[in-house]
Design a protein that fits this description.
Elements: H1 7-28, H2 38-57, H3 61-89, H4 99-116, H5 118-121, E1 125-130, E2 138-142, H6 144-170, H7 173-197, H8 208-226, H9 232-242, E3 247-251, E4 257-260, H10 262-267, H11 279-282, H12 287-295, E5 299-305, E6 311-321, E7 327-336, H13 338-373, H14 383-400, E8 404-411, H15 414-421, H16 423-439, E9 446-451, E10 454-460, H17 464-484, E11 493-500, H18 507-523, E12 529-531
Parallel strand pairs: 11-12
Antiparallel strand pairs: 1-2, 3-4, 3-7, 5-6, 6-7, 8-10, 8-11, 9-10
Helix pairs in contact: 1-2, 1-8, 2-3, 2-8, 3-4, 3-6, 4-6, 6-7, 7-8, 15-16, 16-17
């Protein structure tokens, strides 16, 4: 047999060396999910790559055919071991037991037989054509059985990828990153197969598929040897269980404690060791926790540990079940939340204080708001509030197509009475008018002190004639109230009425119309009510 070292041969032999190194590392490594099958997977890659390398280096066609037939042993075994490894890693290998595991060997065995008997059947390779000029490669024309072999290889690899993908979706944190690493590595052979189907070749005679499986093994090697992907579970157990400040207890299906960390031994009473002690005895002082452990059902509760001082504990019970859903015991985690509990009490106290302060602030705000919009002497709304409310009332009346009237009121000869009887008497005149307007208006009406001795009423849904009639009643009530209070020479009231939209379209126009009506009432002799656009009667 004549051999010519070609780039394809060198690549495949290097692949075999790399795959064997991965086998060596995996055998020296401690057990991990899939560790029983992983060395067989990589050994099949070694055989496939090594023989493919010799086949690429061989010159004679007869030698190439012999090597190809032997090479198909590695080719047939690799997807089978890959599927079994993926099932074991993803903990889905339960269905591989018994007859199913034997059945998986049927397509692999058939592949080897097809290769061995091809000279007589020509089912796998129909004919052999010379490769590119200047190379020692041959092109094997595909027979009908080739598509069976291709379907077997790609189907098994695809199923393995799906198992790893489902495993990645179910996991979280480091375990998900582990599964995603395995998944990405598992996809490489599928990509190589796709390149082979579309006839993409890096070098004459180079089969990319065993190289792709070696790359997959390299990723596994990196995870095992450098990043130690499969060492997370034991390390996590030491870090999270042994070194945690939480108390951790594991009980079997019979209720016996089979594992407990040092914190649990400190917290729970035991004559010697918690291991082997019935969990119901260890947690006997907590009735709810004891019941949850006895039934091995999920529970979450807060407890009090009778230490000095008292210790508050958050307890969580998680049932343990096997793959068939049968109870295998329970996992109990106890966490000291005393500091959190006291912080929550302090936070509640502070929140109550803040809530009381907020109530006081809101009451003060309401009081200040009331002071800001009320006139202190009369108790009526002030000019500032009128400037806010009148545009809104006009907008509402326009939107609802209602009529709105305003009445501008002035105390006749107020300055004369103020000068003659003093400011105290003048303030009494203003206060009495404020009382009359406040008591004589409807709940929806707005009575304001417009300024000095001028007042203003905003009367929604009121025509100007009704507004004038109501103002006449208020004038009479004012005079009667002053007489009852023994005012000397009680003054009269003059008023002007204007309505939206009859007399004006804006708040400024409406105020101007009412003011003009008021001055007309003054000019016509006072002690009367005039409507804008009408003469008094």
């Amino acid at each position: 047999m004549t051999l010519v070292v070609t780039p394809a041969a060198i690549t495949l032999w290097s692949t075999a060396v790399l795959a064997f190194a991965v086998v060596w590392v995996s055998l020296r490594h401690e057990e991990f999910p899939g560790s029983r099958t992983f060395p067989f997977l990589m050994l099949s890659v070694v055989a496939w790559s090594l023989l493919s390398g010799f086949e690429a280096a061989a010159v004679e066609l007869s030698a190439k055919l012999v090597l190809s037939k032997i090479e198909y042993v590695g080719l047939a075994a690799t997807p089978l071991f890959f599927l079994v490894f993926a099932a074991e890693y993803s903990r889905r290998d339960r269905w591989l037991g018994g007859f199913r595991r034997i059945a998986l060997w049927i397509p692999a065995t058939a592949t080897v037989i097809l290769a061995a008997t091809n000279e007589s059947t020509r089912w796998l390779w129909a004919e052999y054509l010379p490769g590119p000029t200047g190379t020692n490669s041959f092109v094997y024309a595909h027979g009908p059985a080739y598509y069976f072999v291709a379907a077997y290889v790609y189907l098994f690899v695809l199923i393995g990828c799906i198992l790893v993908a489902r495993s990645a979706l179910r996991r979280s944190g480091p375990e998900r990153r582990q599964a995603m690493t395995i998944l990405l590595a598992s996809v490489v052979p599928l990509i190589a197969g796709l390149l082979y189907v579309i006839d993409v070749s890096v070098a004459p005679g180079l089969d990319l598929i065993p190289v792709s499986f070696a790359i997959t093994g390299l990723v596994f090697f990196t995870g095992i040897g450098i990043f130690r992907v499969f060492d997370v579970v034991p390390a996590a157990r030491s870090a999270l269980v042994e070194q945690t400040s939480d108390a951790v207890i594991v009980a079997d299906a019979k209720g016996q404690i089979v594992d407990a960390n040092p914190t649990a031994s400190l917290w729970l009473p035991a004559t010697d060791s918690l291991i082997g002690c019935p969990i119901t005895e260890a947690v006997a002082s907590w009735r709810l926790l004891r019941t949850a452990c006895l039934k091995a059902e999920a529970a979450h509760m807060e407890l009090i540990l009778q230490d000095d001082p008292l210790r508050y504990v958050d307890a969580q019970v998680t049932p343990l079940r096997d793959r068939r859903g049968r109870s295998r015991g329970c996992f109990v985690a106890l966490r000291d939340i005393t500091t959190r509990y006291r912080d929550e009490l302090e936070l509640q106290r502070v929140n109550e204080q803040l809530a009381e302060q907020v109530r006081q602030i809101e009451a003060l705000h309401d009081e200040l708001r009331e002071q800001a919009i009320r006139d202190g002497l009369t108790g009526l709304f002030n000019r500032r509030y009128l400037d806010e409310i009148l545009p809104r009332e006009l907008s509402r009346a326009s939107r609802e197509k209602d009529m709105l009237s305003i009445v501008m009121i002035d105390i006749d000869h107020f300055k004369l009475a103020n000068d003659r009887y003093g400011h105290g008497e003048g303030d009494r005149l203003l206060a009495v008018l404020g009382t009359v307007l406040r008591e004589g208006t409807r709940p929806g009406d707005i009575a304001c002190r417009y300024g000095g001795e001028e007042f203003l009423l905003v009367l929604p849904n009121t025509p100007p004639e009704i507004a004038r009639s109501r103002m006449d009643d208020l004038r009479s009530q004012y005079i009667e109230r002053l007489r009852v209070k023994n005012f000397r020479s009680p003054p009269t009231l003059s008023a002007g009425v204007a309505a939206f939209p009859t007399h004006a379209q804006s708040d400024e126009e409406l105020l101007q119309a009412a003011d003009s009506a008021l001055y007309r009432a003054k000019d016509e002799g006072r002690d009367r009510v005039c409507v804008a656009g009408h003469r008094s009667v």
